[in-house]
């Protein structure tokens, strides 16, 4: 998924493919998470931002329940199906995401008509940058407008989560779709995952002489695999034993006491979540008082916690983080669900090239696939383009 097609070109291509003009074109971004990993489904805090890489959909509703879908990046060719009798688990590849959100809106009582859809995206897939949520958020925005459902962002967040959890079968939280739907240019999204309260926190790395590098390790991951689900199960077990609704309710001061109640692995899982929630709060405070140059140590601590306590890093992510730090980055961590995907490295502008070169070299020396390295800045959330 590496194409970027102009809105008018996409609309023209839709016309050619489906022999009619689209009703409109919508876009939604991928995200990076600055800090707050595996805290969302523990009703805790996260600090992601929408990135300047997006999924775009040209879409037209039909007067029957048929669905026809095509992407600009190949894959499954023209997908033809029907919303009648649509069951969780249907569809393949990216086609599961539009079908999943249509299903979730129907479940909410919306009379969703069939549609023709042309998808374009430059959010790399499997890179931990939420390419699937970018598609879901673009499509749900389109269907929300075209059906007149008029749901607020908070409801769309929950509907896309249902699509992911039940239709696609990935037991994920609400962070990614919240960043994609509620992001704003120049800001990170400080989200309280218990009540969906959002505060937009200015994040202007450039003004502080920094860039945020994304290092896509090319180790592909899927949250429908076992690792993510087993971490979630450990957190739920920990909350149950500690007698709280969610790990959000466990303060750092309780950790020592908790150590007597939990088995060794569960304790480490719990410790990650509890300390990570605290790091998010500290990051928000530091960003407001001292700016991006002050958060490096918290990014580092977050990575160590994910590597050692939550055990969701991998050799490629650790190498990307360690090499970035050794070559001038002021803080670095893996971002997203883990087991592959991307790392982020907050880097002084003058050190950027050195970090890039060193990471590429270290990957070659280790025999790893060449990583993709690029900068990101906080961009707008989902919107209608035409
Ligand atoms: C994935 C999930 C999110 C969140 C992160 C980890 O991106 O989709 O809900 O749990 O992993 O922070």
Automatic annotation (TrEMBL):
Belongs to the GHMP kinase family. GalK subfamily. Pfam families: GalKase_gal_bdg (PF10509), GHMP_kinases_C (PF08544), GHMP_kinases_N (PF00288). This is Galactokinase. One of its GO terms (biological process) is galactose metabolic process. The keyword GTP-binding does not apply. PANTHER family: GALACTOKINASE-RELATED, MEVALONATE KINASE/GALACTOKINASE. Residues 13-60 form the Galactokinase N-terminal domain. GO terms for molecular function: ATP binding; galactokinase activity; metal ion binding. GO terms for cellular component: cytosol. Keywords: ATP-binding, Carbohydrate metabolism, Cytoplasm, Galactose metabolism, Kinase, Magnesium, Metal-binding, Nucleotide-binding, Transferase. Residues 97-183 form the GHMP kinase N-terminal domain. Residues 285-362 form the GHMP kinase C-terminal domain. Gene3D superfamilies: 3.30.230.10, GHMP kinase, C-terminal domain. Its EC number is 2.7.1.6. It is an enzyme of class 2 (transferase). The gene is galK.
């Amino acid at each position: 998924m590496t194409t970027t097609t102009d809105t008018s070109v996409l609309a023209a291509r839709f016309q050619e493919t489906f022999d009619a003009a689209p009703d409109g074109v919508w876009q939604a971004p991928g995200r990076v998470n600055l800090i707050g990993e595996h805290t969302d489904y523990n009703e805790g805090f996260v600090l992601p931002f929408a990135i300047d890489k997006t999924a775009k959909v040209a879409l037209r509703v039909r007067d029957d329940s048929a669905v026809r879908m095509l992407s600009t990046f190949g894959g499954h060719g023209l997908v033809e199906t029907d919303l009648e009798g649509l069951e969780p688990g249907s569809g393949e590849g990216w086609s599961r995401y539009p079908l999943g959100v249509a299903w979730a809106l129907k479940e909410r009582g919306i009379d969703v008509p069939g549609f023709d859809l042309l998808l374009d995206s430059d959010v790399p897939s499997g890179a931990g940058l939420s390419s699937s949520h970018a598609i879901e958020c673009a499509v749900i925005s389109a269907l929300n407008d075209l059906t007149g459902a008029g749901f607020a962002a908070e409801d769309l967040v929950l509907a896309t989560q249902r699509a992911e959890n039940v239709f696609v079968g990935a037991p994920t939280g609400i962070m990614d779709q919240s960043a994609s739907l509620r992001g704003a240019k120049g800001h990170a999204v400080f989200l309280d995952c218990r009540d969906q309260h959002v505060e937009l926190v200015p994040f202007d790395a450039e003004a502080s002489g920094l860039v945020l590098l994304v290092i896509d390790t090319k180790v592909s991951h899927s949250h429908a695999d076992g690792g993510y689900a087993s971490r979630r199960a450990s957190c739920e077990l920990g909350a149950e034993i500690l007698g709280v609704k969610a790990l959000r309710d466990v303060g750092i001061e309780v950790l020592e006491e908790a150590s007597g109640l939990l088995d060794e692995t569960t304790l480490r899982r719990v410790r990650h979540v509890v300390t990570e929630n605290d790091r998010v709060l500290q990051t928000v405070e530091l960003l407001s008082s001292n700016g991006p140059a002050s958060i490096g140590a918290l990014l580092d601590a977050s990575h160590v916690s994910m590597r050692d306590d939550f055990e969701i890093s991998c050799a490629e992510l650790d190498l990307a983080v360690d090499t970035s730090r050794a070559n001038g980055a002021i803080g670095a961590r893996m971002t997203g669900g883990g087991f592959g995907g991307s790392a982020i490295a907050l880097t002084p502008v003058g050190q950027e090239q050195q970090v890039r070169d060193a990471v590429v070299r270290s990957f070659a020396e280790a025999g790893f696939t060449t990583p993709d390295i690029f900068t990101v800045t906080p961009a707008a959330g989902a919107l209608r383009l035409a």
